[in-house]
Amino acid sequence: MELHVMEPTGEMCYSFHNQTSNGGMLSQDATQGYGPEQYLAKNVIPGDYNIFVRLFSPVPTGSSNGITVKLNIWTHFGTQTQNETIIVTRIPFSAYKQTLKIATIKVTQNN
Predict the structure, then answer these.
(1) Measured between alpha carbons, how far is residue 5 from residues 63, 64, 76 in Å?
(2) What are 59-64's contacts with CB under 8 Å, separation 24+?
(3) Which letter does DSSP use for residue 10 in this model?
(4) Which residues touch 36 (CB under 8 Å, ≥6 apart)?
(5) DSSP-assigned letters across all residues of 14-58
(6) What is the CB neighbour count within 10 angstroms for residue 66?
(7) Which side of the chain, N or C, has fewer Cβ within a 10 Å radius?
(8) Interatomic CA distance for residues 26 and 41, integer angstroms
């Protein structure tokens, strides 16, 4: 599983482009096991941050239900207005090698 984040500028942050011109960063690519992978943006700009995942592993033997993906999204991390949103979704194994949009985080000037 690989995490991709498209910033409002249209620039995609992922394992082969893990730092963006706006300062977004992706953690080290977790190639063994199921992660975690983390995206961090200290200098957010207003707009949509689209979150995608890409399934790189073929179907494990004896499994047909897919993979559960859990996103923990923090805004204002480490401040008194820190907020956490949790999104849990299922990725079918039929999505092997596809990049699927999981969520969109809308950032405004006031949040």
Answers:
(1) 28, 27, 18
(2) 59/93, 59/96, 63/93, 64/93
(3) S
(4) 27, 30
(5) BTTB-B-TTS-EE-----SSS----EE-SS--SEEEEEEEEB-SP
(6) 15
(7) C
(8) 9
Where do we find the tokens 């975690």?
A: 36
Give the type of residue at 111.
N
Instruction: State the pLDDT at residue 25.
Output: 92
Confidence of residue 102 (pLDDT cuts 50, 70, 90): very high
pLDDT over 90 at 100, yes or no: no
> Taking a C-beta distance cutoff of 8 angstroms, is the pair 78, 26 a contact?
no
Question: DSSP assignment, residue 60?
Answer: P
Q: What is the pLDDT of residue 43?
A: 83
- Phi, psi (deg, nearest 5) at residue 41: -135, 105
